[in-house]
Amino acid sequence: MSFEYAPAPESRAVVSIKAKYGHFIGGKFVAGSKHFPTINPATEEVLSHIALAGKAEVDAAVKSARKAYVTTWSKMSGKERGKYLFRIARIMQERAREFAVLETLDNGKPIRESRDVDVPLAAAHFFYHGGWADKLEYAGLGTSPKAHGVAGQIIPWNFPLLMLAWKVAPALAAGNTVVLKPAETTSLTALLFAEVCQQAELPAGVVNIVTGDGSTGALIVNHPGIDKIAFTGSTEVGKIIARAVAPTHKSVTLELGGKAANIVFEDAAIDEAIEGIVNGIFFNQGHVCCAGSRLLLQENIAEEVLEKLKSRMAKIRVGDPMDKNTDLGAINSKEQLHKITELSTVGDSEGGERWSAPCELPSKGFWFAPTIFTGVTQSHRIAREEIFGPVLSVLTFRTPQEAIDKANNTPFGLSAGIWSEKGSKVLWASQQLRAGVIWANTFNKFDPTSPFGGYKESGWGREGGRHGLSAYLKGATHE
Amino acid sequence: MSFYGLVDGSDASLKKYLGNLSGVDQVGADARAAMLATRSIKTTSKRWAIDTAISMVDLTTLEGADTPGKVQALCTKAVRPDPTDSTVPSVGAVCVYNDMVGIARTHLDSIGGQHVGVAAVSTAFPSGRASMPVKIQDTQDAIDAGASEIDMVIDRGAFLSGRYIEVFNEIVAIREICGTKAHLKVIFETGELVTYDNVRKASFLAMAAGADFIKTSTGKVAPAATAPVVLVMLEAVRDFYSMTKVRIGVKPAGGIRNTKDAIKQLVLVNETAGPEWLTPSLFRIGASALLNDLLMQRMKMDDGYYASPQYVTID
User: Fold this and answer.
1) Where are the domains of chain A?
2) What is the reported pLDDT for A225?
C-alpha cells in the first residue's frame, strides 16, 4: 500500500451565505435591483445571487462616500482613523477562518493558500496602514499631505479579499473614503468585509461596496464625484480607464498584466529554484498578474532542471480546493478556462512542446492541469501574452546578458525572478531588469511594507509601502 | 571499490565530485519543509502512517547507564511493541552501544525476534574522536557480536576543516569491514555541520563512499533531525538514485518524539524522495519515546479516546 492522503476537507459550516446580496452603501446593506448568480468554480454550484449596480446605486455610493468624507473622515485625526484600521485588522484575524473558507468557495483557490496567504496578508495590510494613519506628515511625502477625497476602486477576481485590502487600507489611512467594486465572479468576501466594517463601527459611508460587472466599473470610472481611481486587472481595461480619466481631474493608479521572466542561472540552488518555478506559476492556479510565466533557463542546465521540474509537477495535488492538502485548485471561471485552453492551443500550433502533469481532474467545475511548454521562443504568442493560468512557457539562454535581453523584451514589466547563488550576479541582473518587483531566490512573496507595481504596460503607480501610500495623497512629492 | 564510477578514490576526484553539487538555499529549503508540514493526514492514511512509522523505528537506548536488563526489556518491546495487540508490527531494529550488541541479539533470537535487526553505534560514537585502528576495532567487535547494522559517525572535525578525503576513506574502511554482514548507516551529526550545503555535501560524500543509509544525528547534539535537514538528505538520495539507480536509505534521529512529527517525516519522504522510500529498508526513524506515542495514537484511532499512559509499556 502506498501513502494516499485521505480527504481532509475544511468545514464550510463556519460560513453562512445568503441566497441574495445587495450593496453596502452608507453603512447599511441596501437591496439591489438586478441580480446575477455567483458560483463555486470547483463544483459549478450556485452559491448566491449578487446585485448588479447601475447608475442609481453608484450615485448613491459616491454620494455617501462624499458625505462621509466631508462630515467625518476628513475631520478625524489620523490617530483616530488608525484605530479603525487596527480594529478592522483584528476582526479580520478573528474571522480569518470564515474569510478563508468563503474565499475558497467563491474563487476556487486552495484553502491552504486562502488560509496561509490571502487572509493573513489582507489583515497585515490593515495593520501596516493603520500605523501610517497618524504619521503621514513624516512619510517624506511633503509636510502636509492631503487625501484626494473619494476613491473609486475596482479589483480583480484572483485575490478578492487581498486586493480589497491593498486598495481600502491605504485609502482609509490617507484619509480618503472609498467606493469599491469587487470582481463579478468573486464578490462574497468583499460583502463579508462590509460586515466587518459594521462590526468595527466604521463611520457610515467611509467604505461603500457596490457589486456588478464591467458596466458598474465603467460607472465608477466615469463618475464625476470621484477623485481617484485605483484599478487592478487586465491591461486592456487599464488602457480604457486611462483614456477615460485622462481629460478629468482624477488621479489614477493601475496595476495591470504581466509576463514575468523567472531566470534560472547555472549557479542556482536547483532544488529551491524548482520550488520557486512551481510557486511562481502554479501559485493560485497561475491567476497572478506577477506570475513567473516565462521560465528562462540557462541552456547548460535546462535538461536537468526540466527533468526535475516535471517530476516535481507530478507531485502537485490538484483537486478539491477545500481539501487542506490541495496545491492547485479550480480555474476561476468558464471564460478564463476558455482563454487558457485557447492560448495553449495556440502554443501547440506554434510548435511549442506541451507537457502536462499526470493528474485526474474533477468532472465538474473548471480545471486545467499544470502545464509547461518547452521549445518556446520570444516569437511565440505564449511567450508574449498573459495566459493567467497554470501554463509555463520555457525558454533558454546562453549568457547572462541574453537572459536580461529576453526578460526585458516584453511590453510588460511587473515582476521578475533571479535564481543564482552568486550575489554579484543577482545584484547585476536586478539592476538590468525592467520590472517593478524583482525577487531573488524566491518568488511571489508579498509584504505590505514593500511597494508593488509595474513598468511599461504593467501599470502606473505602486501599491504598498510608502510609495503606495503616496498614491492616496494629493501633492505627494513622490509618485 | 568502484564508488559507482563517481570518484576514483583520489582527493582530486572527490573534490571535483563535491564541487559539482548545486548549493542549497536555506530560506527556500526551510519554506519547502514548512509547507510540507501543513499536510493534513487523517483517518485511513493516518492509520497506515502510524503502522508504517512503527515498523521504521530504530528503538534506541544509548545511555552510559544501559544494563543487560534494560537492553533485554527494550528488545522485548521491539518485537511486540503492544503486548495486547498482535497486529502491531515489530520495529525495524534496536539500536544500542557496541558492548550491548551480543545481549540484544541473543535476547531477540530467544523471543522470536529474529526479524528485528541490531544496530550498533560505532567508530567512537558519538564524537568520532579516536584513531582509525580504534574505530575499525570498534566496528569489528560489533559485527562479531552479531550486529546487522552499523551506525558510524563521521569525523566532523575533518569534514569542517575540508579534509573530505579523510572522511571518505574512513567510510570506505568501515564499509569494507561491514562487508555483506552489516548494513552501514553514516551519521553526519547535522547539528555540528550546521549548513544545508554541508548536509548535501556530506550526503553525496557518504553515498559515494558506500553508505547504505545516511543518518542525521547521534541524538546527543541539538538540533538533530529537523525537517529541512531531512528534506535536503531526501533530495540527495533522490538525486543519487537518478545518477546511479541505487537507492540509499535515510534515517532521521533525535528530536522526533511524537506521532505528528513522525507523520511529517513520512510526508517529507513521500513528496521528496518518493513513495519507493516508504519502507523500513530505506527509511528508519531513530527514537525512543516516539514508539509509545505511536502506540497511544494507534489505540486512540481504534477506541476513539485517549487511553491513560499506563496502557502502554514503559520499556
Assistant:
1) 23-256+456-474, 261-440
2) 98
Q: Is the pLDDT of residue A477 over 90?
A: no
Rounded to an integer, the average pLDDT of B107-125 is 97
Q: Which of B294, B187, B291 is nearest to B249 (CA)?
A: B187
Q: Three-state SS for B143?
A: helix
**A2/B29 touch (CB, cutoff 8 Å), yes or no:** no
CA contacts within 13 A on the Cβ side of A168: 33
Sequence-ordered list of residues with C-beta below 8 angstroms from that of A162, at least 6 positions apart, any chain = A117, A118, A121, A122, A125
Q: How many residues would you count in chain A?
A: 479
Among residues A174, A11, A3, which one has the least CA distance to residue A85? A174
Looking at residue A476, what is its pLDDT?
A: 58
* Cis amide bond preceding A120, omega within 30: no
| Residue in A267, A271, A442 closest to B24 by CB | A271
**Architecture in CATH of A261-440:** 3-Layer(aba) Sandwich (3.40)
Name beta bridge partners: A401: none
The reply to whether B265 touches chain A by the CB within 8 Å rule is no
The residue extents of the domains of chain B are 3-299
- Categorize the per-residue pLDDT at A144 as very low, low, confident or very high, splitting at 50, 70 and 90: confident
List, in order, residues 6 or more apart from B25 with CB less than 8 Å away: A269, A272, A273, A421, A441
φ, ψ (nearest 5 deg) of residue A372: -125, 150
Residue A143: phi, psi to the nearest 5?
-80, -30
3 state SS for B65-93: CCCHHHHHHHHHHHHCCCCCCCCCCCCCE
Tens digits of residue pLDDT in B148-185:
999 999 999 999 999 999 999 999 999 999 999 999 99
Residue B215: closest CA among B105, B56, B88: B56
pLDDT in tens, A108-140: 999 999 999 999 999 999 999 999 999 999 999
* CATH class for the domain made up of A23-256+456-474: alpha beta
- Nearest residue of chain A to residue B39 (CA atoms): A325
Q: Are A58 and A219 in contact (CB under 8 A)?
A: yes
From chain A residues 253-312, the ones with a CB under 8 A of any chain B CB are 267-273, 275-276, 307
Are A457 and A411 in contact, with CB atoms under 8 Å apart?
A: yes
Q: Is A222 left (phi over 0), alpha (psi -120 to 50) or beta?
A: alpha
| Cα-based distances in Å from A287 to A158, A354, A457, B238 | 6, 19, 18, 31
**CATH T-level topology, domain B3-299:** TIM Barrel (3.20.20)
Average pLDDT of chain A? 97
Q: Report the Cα–Cα distance between both ends of chain B, in Å, rounded.
A: 42
Instruction: Give the active site residue among A184, A197, A289, A386.
Output: A289
Q: Is A289 a known active-site residue?
A: yes
**Cα–Cα distance between A443 and A277 in angstroms, integer?**
8
- Choice between B307 and B88, residue whose per-residue pLDDT is larger: B88
Q: Are A185 and A233 in contact (CB under 8 A)?
A: no
Percent of chain A with pLDDT over 70: 99
Question: Is B245 an annotated catalytic residue?
Answer: no
Average pLDDT over residues A438-467: 97
Dihedral of CA atoms A225, A230, A232, A235 in degrees, nearest 10, equals: 80
What's the pLDDT tens digit per position in A367-402? 999 999 999 999 999 999 999 999 999 999 999 999
